Amino acid sequence: MQDIILKLEHITKIYPNGTVANKDINIELKKGEIHSIVGENGAGKSTLMKVIFAIEKQTTGKIYYKGKEVNFSNSMDAIANGIGMVHQHFMLIPSFTVAENIVLGAEPKKGLFIDKKEAVRVTQELAKKYNFDIDVTQKVADLNVSAKQKVEILKTLYRNAEVIILDEPTAVLTPQETEQLFEQLLKFKELGHTIVFISHKLNEVKQISDRVSVIRLGESKGTYDAEGITIEKLTELIIGRKLETSYDEYRRPVENPKMILDVRHLSYKDSAGVPKVKDASFSIKGGEILGIAGVQGNGQEELIRAITGLIPFQEGTVKICGKETQTLTIMEKRNAGMSYIPEDRMIDGCAAEASNSDNLISTTYTKKPISGLVFLNNKVIKNRSQELIKRFAVKTNSEKEKVGALSGGNIQKVVVAREWSTNPELMIAEQPTRGIDVGSANAIHKELIEMRNQGKGILLVSADLNEVMALSDRLLVMDDGKVVAYFDSMKGVTESELGLYMLGVEHHSEEVIRGACYEE
Amino acid sequence: MKNKSKNFKWTNEGPFEFLRIMASIFTALLVTFIVLCVVTKSFALNIFVDLLTYPSRSMFYFGYVLVKMIPLCFAGLATLLYFRTGLFNLSTEGVFYFSGVVATWVAVNPNIMTGNEILDSFITIMVAGVAGALIALIPGFLKAKLNADEMVISLMLNSILFGIGYYIVLTYLAVPGISGTASADFIDTARLTKLIPKTQVHTGLIIMFVMVVLVYILLFKTKLGYAIRMTGLNKNFAKYSGMSAFGLFMVVHLLAGFIGGMGSGVELMGLYKKFNWSSLPGLGFTGALMANIGKNHPIGVLIAAFGISYLRAGAQLLANSNPFIDISMISIVEVILTLLISSQYFLRAWRSKQMLKEEQKNG
């Protein structure tokens, strides 16, 4: 149908620390197509996008844009030439209005000042042209995630982007919002824009794109027509082997389960006095996974941080294995049987500059036989680290390698291995597979199921609906700090049904939600 | 994706780091040479060679290098404990001065001194250490309890400690009738004995080596050292893992203060007959310099202390014989060294180019 708008030829990118992120990659984008780029985390997708968008400079290789070789000096240059990018983490100013955010950097002027009226008019027109339903005079701080994403997209359109790169745009959206986004993408396509769509969700990729390019270990594994390729085949190309998708066959029943976690009427207000968690109650017995679903930022994070002791909560009780924990330190909670895979592995989950073995012992280093009264037992640490690395199949040169040199999926495996190694009663898994590849995610899921089968209690929080639905025995949905729905079994629960609860369109009665607590 | 080959390559992390430090030293020396040429308005190659070889021309000179590295090393060890914990504390400066005053009070006091050589110097140095530890608890407590900025506090504290210390010296320790302010002579048994005859080298050198080993063991072999390293690398991670920042900050300040205080005691009892310091010794910043050049590693600090002491001695000796040379000139070398060694990106471009070549060769 169309001519080539952007062509990547033999792109190789080596980072200063020696990581070869891209190796001789060739990709052609046709004008007016939706082109997906898929690959495991650490495969080099993000780096490739950064190269296109001139955030990183390729080590060798050429980029042709509209038939001419280009060498953008920075991302402003790329934007000026009609390439736009919507990042995973939004780059908006919360206290500005939608219109102000959109025109930021290229404001309509009236003399020396910004012409606010003109800004509102222009952005309204833009929103109308592309069928965006958004009030441009609203402050960005008041918008929900999907609306913020719309603002990001409008920002690129305002700068006349012809090629729009969307980095995992659906990761933060509910199924309904995703549908909406896809309609808009099709509209862009109709108007002649080229879309680069990056995602881990292969069904979405297959649904929306015209063509798919696969990257594995920094190398291109070909470009395919989306119609002509199955999800199974794509998965195989991405991870280099076949993969199972359901965990039901791994589940084993557990006899005489103990009460592991009992949360009653927990409420938390942040330092500004804003209630973030409102009267949450639920309990977990051994041998089950309780999932918490919800759009990100609806109190799940605060709930977990309150339970684990990273933030103090104001009301309610949290009992871990029968022990009241409100006044306990994190160390004491861990000793009571708690383990915690944190949401952000780089902030809380690891010390990137420290070695694998240092990272693997941080929760056990005070215990025998890892240490005595004063000294660490380096021999035990070495053996243990090697065992854990082997058991969790962490891809690394040795236990002495820095964790920061590993890919995201392998760092996460180190975190999971460490939390597993304390032999906990309660495992709190917060976004345990966010941003990591299918292979690693699959391995971590199996570990969680295995722990469940051994009679541990698992609290799982995830923004990925597929994950929560595949793993959970019981499920809570949170919206606006409240528990709005409770399912005592995952049978017959559908994604779109959950979406309605997540968006606050529907909610369960108090009585149903009370079912989340076991009577003692 | 990663370089899997186990063969030795200059681009591997360890050798590359070594190469980088060597290149830093070379650059710093080159700049020194240029500065020498400029100040003497000539091609100053022989002066430059003098600078580098003077200290090793006689045993006495070399002994001077060894003696002068002791306080540098102690200050570096104390500061590296702070840095490893992620604290930018420069209180070693004030600690050094004040502990010196306290050590003096002990060392001139016949009621405390027993007359046994080993015991008396031990008591004096320990008292200095304990004094340092207690002083360091002030910024430690303020940091741990109130989250006060330790750098600001420690800088303010330095002036306060000097003020109080100087007051104590003037009012209680100064002996009338001598020009300048100085204490009475230390009791002989409190002073450290000579280690190498015909030089100034005293037994403090051995104490210094012992401390380097102890700090190394502390950092890499003990639970406490592990907590220090993890907290310094990522304090959120440490908190999440269950480590208590409060306790750790207090202990680190105690230890670093103790090392600083000890260093002061060793310096005084080794090199001085009486207390006559009339200004802060400047070891807060120098300690930071040592920790930085030594890459926050005790062995690194030892080497840095020797290197800097050597250069300073060279400049000092040169300054005695050449009117164009000033001792403070050597601070140029120190600063350039620190700058280059702590610059993460220095030589990075060269390394990635080499790696690209390898990658292309291997296909």
Overview of this structure, please?
The complex is a heterodimer of chains A (about 525) and B (about 375). Chain A is α/β, with parallel strands linked by helices. Chain A is globular, with a radius of gyration of 24 Å. In chain A, the strands form five sheets. Chain A has a six-stranded mixed sheet, sandwiched between helices. Chain A has 18 helices and 22 strands. Chain A has helices spanning about 45-50, 75-80, 100-105, 115-130, 145-160, 175-190, 200-210, 230-240, 300-310, 330-335, 345-350, 355-360, 380-390, 410-420, 440-455, 465-470, 495-500, 510-515, and strands spanning about 5-15, 20-30, 35-40, 60-65, 70, 85, 110, 115, 165, 195-200, 210-215, 220-225, 260-270, 275-285, 290-295, 315-320, 325, 340, 425-430, 455-460, 475-480, 480-485. In chain A, strand 21 (about 475-480) and strand 22 form a beta hairpin. Chain A folds into four domains: about 1-80 and about 160-245, P-loop containing nucleotide triphosphate hydrolases (Rossmann fold, 3-Layer(aba) Sandwich), CATH 3.40.50; about 90-160, no CATH class; about 255-330 and about 450-520, Rossmann fold, CATH 3.40.50.300; about 340-425, Rossmann fold (3-Layer(aba) Sandwich), CATH 3.40.50.300. With about 375 residues, chain B is mainly alpha-helical. Chain B has one domain (about 45-325): ABC transporter involved in vitamin B12 uptake, BtuC (Orthogonal Bundle). The radius of gyration of chain B is 22 Å and the shape is globular. Mean pLDDT of chain B is about 90; it is low at about 1-5.
